[in-house]
Design brief:
- By secondary structure, the chain is mostly helical.
- The chain contains six helices and two strands, in the order H-E-H-E-H-H-H-H.
- It has a two-stranded parallel ribbon.
- Strand 1, helix 2 and strand 2 form a beta-alpha-beta unit.
- Helix 3 packs across helix 5.
- The protein is elongated.
């Protein structure tokens, strides 16, 4: 009797130990396989290029992979035999025909020729901000170009009329950063200029204008009523403003290089035989 019970207990104990061992091995294999299949992240690049984890492609990036399909452009017709591979429906920039038009420039603003090679206005908010800045600088440049030439024409006659010293430097050049002479200007002039600019900027920031439409100043009623004529005159105006900004920079560079005023250089060009 006792021998039978002992044999039964031994067989049960052996069976239970084998089953537990098998279960442990199965669970261990399952954990190992799950660990081996688990992706690893290595932002500090601790796993070498020849490590087992990299060879098994277990190293993942923290950021999701982006699949961007870039258009194939051929502005110089370098692919004559691969017409099917070149995308023809890409909206190209008018100013830079070899580059796609930036997505934020949708031809809604006057003078939009798709020129933003450094992608400064990549959002609508940045585009509005850049547009406002361009309009302000362009208007100041138009006034500055006219004032530059008028100052060289009338500074000496007005100074002699009021018994004052002329502000023009050698060669009848207007005061500027490159020409010098800005220290001769009355400090009250700078106070008035900076105060006026500050008031205009405060008024602009406090207004509700979203930047897409310019504040209209038309005391003579010259602004046309039809949409087509408005678009044309707005495009002409912004082109003249941009030209004024380039001209202002050119004035300073030309006077610095030639050591002669703009008006004198212009007269030499128009009347070469009288110079």
């Amino acid at each position: 009797m006792f021998l039978v019970l002992a044999a039964l207990l031994t067989s049960v104990k052996g069976f239970s130990s084998v089953s537990l061992k098998q279960q442990y091995e199965i669970s261990s294999l399952g954990m190992a396989s799950s660990i081996n299949e688990r992706p690893l992240y290595d932002p500090l690049n601790l796993y070498g290029a020849n490590s087992k984890e990299r060879k098994e492609f277990r190293i993942r990036s923290l950021e999701p992979e982006l699949k961007v399909n870039k258009p194939v452009l051929d502005p110089m017709n370098l692919y004559p035999n691969k017409v099917d591979e070149v995308d023809k429906n890409v909206d190209m920039s008018d100013a830079l025909p070899f580059m796609p038009r930036p997505t934020s420039l949708k031809r809604e603003l006057a003078g939009d020729v798709g020129f933003d090679p450094f992608n400064f206005a990549d959002t609508e908010e940045k585009l509005i901000w850049q547009r406002k800045a361009e309009l302000k600088h362009a208007r100041v440049a138009m006034l500055a170009v006219a004032g530059w030439m008028l100052s060289e024409l009338f500074d000496k006659p007005l100074a002699s009329m009021f018994n004052l010293d002329s502000l023009l430097s050698v060669g009848d050049r207007a005061p500027s950063l490159l020409n010098g002479g800005l220290d001769k200007v009355n400090p009250l002039f700078w106070v008035v200029v900076l105060s006026t600019a500050g008031l205009v900027e405060i008024r602009t920031l406090s207004s509700d204008n979203d930047g897409k439409e310019e504040s209209l100043w038309d005391p003579l009623g010259l602004y046309p009523r039809s949409d087509s004529e408005r678009k044309q005159i707005e495009a002409d105006e912004i082109n003249n403003r941009r030209l004024a900004m380039l001209a202002f920079v050119g004035f300073g560079a030309q006077e610095f290089m030639t050591n002669t005023g703009i008006v004198n250089n212009l007269m030499k060009y128009l009347l070469p035989h009288q110079s």
